[in-house]
Amino acid sequence: MSDFSRTITVSAERPYDVLVSHGARHRLPELIGDAQRVAILYAPPLALLAEELASSLPAEVTALVLPDGEQAKTAQVAVGCWDALAAAGFTRSDVVVGLGGGATTDLAGFIAATWLRGVGLITVPTTVLGMVDAAVGGKTGINIPAGKNLVGAFHEPRGVLCDLSVLATLPPQQIRAGMAEVIKCGFIADPEILDRYEADPDAAVDPASDLLAELIARGIAVKAQVVSGDLREATSVGTTVGRELLNYGHTLGHAIERQEQYRWPHGEAISVGMVYAAELAQRIGWMSADLTQRHRRILTRLGLPVRYRPEAWPQLRDAMALDKKTRGSQLRFMLLHDLGRPEICAGPAEADLAAAYAALTTPRA
Fold this sequence. Notes:
The chain is α/β, with parallel strands linked by helices and 365 residues long. The chain contains 13 helices and eleven strands.
């Protein structure tokens, strides 16, 4: 087993560490501390891992089994969790643990943020997406029929344990989909991620490789730096871009997820969303054709989609109007001029929005 280990500190309102290593989950008891009650939220495929963690804790454990994937992020599921915490007598000194992918850690964070107006939270992400995106940064939330993550709260964890060893249990396509968020970090802030991926794309998705571990750690470092400076997503203006930087590709991506009723993996939707953002930036004269094509080339090599259905544009356009970055009736997009050169594009012309989408509906070389 690789001895790769990296600790990344998120210096936000209450600093915490993100540990990236093989066996990181075994550090859970020390993060729990002297809490008397612990709730472990997990999806059914992780039952054995949840049982292992529960048996390692010197506390009264409440195990809460969630629906798998985005189906966990509903008001109905949240109410069930709150009822379980009430029945177990959870107090403000107790701890919620989110064990699983991004949907599980989002829901666990929302439960921790809202129970008694905030209890301790520890996340143990078990997917690439969960490690790089959902488990770090303090954003929590659930979905409603109108859109994704429209109900939520900011709630920072006590710590994040990214156990690389669990990645070996994932289907290859799930690793590839999670890599979309890593690649996003390469475009917005750390081009070295792109260079290293292109140099050895097979190792970059191999759960046994140090390259995948390094790319995950670099992605986490990008997010840590961004949220340390702007935890609550203060409004960005022009080239002064705070946490909205992390939303690259997410405006259209979230609309696609809603259109697909969350059956598409998040990373696949964000892959299409990043290509759309690149096409829009090229259309308004910000991004070069070469960089737009690099988006397509890298994401296609990952095995991720870069096109979507032409007839879906009216529904997607309506869904984007509910995006969290929208201000009033004005759409806002996080776009790039070049690698690591972001700018907020507020109120792009409808003709440009439609033309950029049209570019997604036809194959490119």
